[in-house]
Design goal:
By secondary structure, the protein is an all-alpha fold. 78% of the residues lie in helices and 0% in strands. It has one domain. α3 crosses α4. The chain is elongated, with a radius of gyration of 16 Å. It starts with 6 loop residues before the first helix and ends in a 5-residue tail after the last helix.
Length: 147
């Protein structure tokens, strides 16, 4: 299979999606007075299920989140069409969210399954929007239609 996007564009899209995709759940937690680190600790528990300290769980999350994001970026790099990339990235991220949150998390990662569904869904959709949006923006900019 051949990559559909330039590697530099994929790296930029991966970084944007990875760094900012947690904003929806973080903002939701802050707005509702919930624990803003709950999702981070849950992600860390995927790698370090026996850890109890916030520092250890945050460190584990700093490995898990980029690794999972890299995996899905690689999958999307081969599957996303160049035309309509934002739409398809968001739709794809919805499929990933349903798989992650309704199948994988309940079976293997109870701390993730215990998180509120909608903020986690929003994080997944944000990831897809940022991945697709960055790819789209970089393709347009290279073609001379940039903003």
């Amino acid at each position: 299979m051949k990559l559909r996007f330039r590697r530099r564009d994929l790296v930029a899209a991966y970084l944007a999606a990875t760094v900012f995709s947690g904003l929806p759940s973080t903002l939701h937690a802050l707005a509702t007075g919930a624990d803003a680190l709950e999702a981070t600790r849950a992600a860390g528990a995927m790698l370090a299920p026996g850890a109890t300290s916030t520092a250890a769980l945050v460190a584990a999350a700093a490995v898990v989140h980029p690794a999972v994001s890299l995996f899905w970026t690689a999958v999307f790099a081969f599957l996303l069409p160049r035309r309509g990339v934002v739409f398809w990235a968001i739709l794809g991220s919805l499929a990933v969210a349903l798989l992650d949150l309704l199948v994988i998390a309940p079976a293997f990662f109870p701390s993730v399954a215990a998180l509120p569904f909608r903020p986690q869904l929003a994080d997944h959709l944000m990831w897809g929007a940022l991945l697709g949006g960055t790819l789209h923006w970089r393709m347009r900019r290279r073609q001379g239609h940039g903003d």
